[in-house]
Design goal:
Helix content: 10-25%
Number of helices: 5
Low-confidence stretches: 16-20, 171-175
Oligomer: single chain
Length: 257
């Protein structure tokens, strides 16, 4: 009789587990559909170039539907534009993709964030979450354009967990491994970033990191700035990804310029 009871209890537990897993999977499916229209490619347009649009990273829409958040290094790479070249975003999908010019409004070099402004019809905006509630072990997802033009204008979503909440800069093991960028960051006020057990790729820089259940953004993928500060002592760079907490996006949005 005891064995029968145990079997029944185990069956109930497994049923609850699989039902919960199915529920979480459906949550992410629905969330990805809702998030994709708000995730845009960042790049430049030049009519005489083939292809005319050159990718540099990912961004996402917030606030009034005309505000775009991305990494500072994504737009700084386009700081020397030619006379007939324009920075902007690519929105839509496949053959219906549309390039919309953008203006760089504010740059936050310390946290590697940038705010852009577009005109025209507002796009769907993502909700910003509360980074103070983020905990190690919680599930996350992010959507962007890994490898940029190499894979074409197709949104790709990855999922993982927050593996650690860690200082942005890691002191080198000895002075020979220090470089000016690391030294400068170590002199500034320390702040923490999210270390993710998920693989991001070049082109994912600027992608929103969000809660799979709600789509609320908790961070911004960073593939260059943080790795350069934390992994300078590693001969072979790891597959670890990092994200800037969204509270610094909130600070950026409050700036007048």
């Amino acid at each position: 009789m005891k064995n029968v009871s145990r079997h029944i209890c185990l069956s109930v537990v497994l049923s609850i587990f699989f039902a919960t897993s199915d529920c979480h999977a459906q949550d992410l499916i629905n969330t990805v559909k809702a998030v994709k229209p708000s995730v845009v490619a960042i790049g430049t347009f030049k009519k005489t170039r083939s292809p005319a649009v050159s990718f540099s990273g990912t961004g996402f829409i917030v606030g009034d539907g005309l505000t775009v958040i991305t990494n500072a290094h994504v737009v700084n790479g386009n700081s020397s534009l030619e006379a007939d070249e324009t920075i902007g975003i690519l929105t839509g999908k496949d053959d219906t993709a549309e390039f919309r010019p953008a203006t760089v409004v504010t740059i936050d070099e310390e946290h590697d964030l940038a705010r852009l402004k577009i005109s025209g019809t507002p796009l769907p905006a993502l909700m910003l979450g509360n980074p103070d509630t983020v905990a190690e072990g919680q599930q996350i997802a992010f959507t962007g354009f890994p490898l940029g033009a190499a894979l074409g204008f197709h949104h790709a979503t990855h999922r993982g967990i927050v593996s650690s909440i860690t200082p942005v800069a890691r002191p080198a093991q000895d002075s020979r491994r220090l470089d000016p960028k690391v030294i400068a960051q170590l002199r500034k006020a320390a702040y923490s970033v999210f270390q993710l057990d998920a693989t991001a790729y070049p082109g994912n820089s600027g992608s929103p990191v969000y809660e799979p259940e709600t789509g609320a953004v908790i961070g911004v993928i960073n593939m260059v700035f943080i790795k350069g500060l934390k992994e300078t002592a590693i001969t072979n760079p790891s597959g670890i990804s990092y994200a800037i907490p969204v509270n610094y996006v909130n600070d950026l949005l409050k700036r007048k310029n």
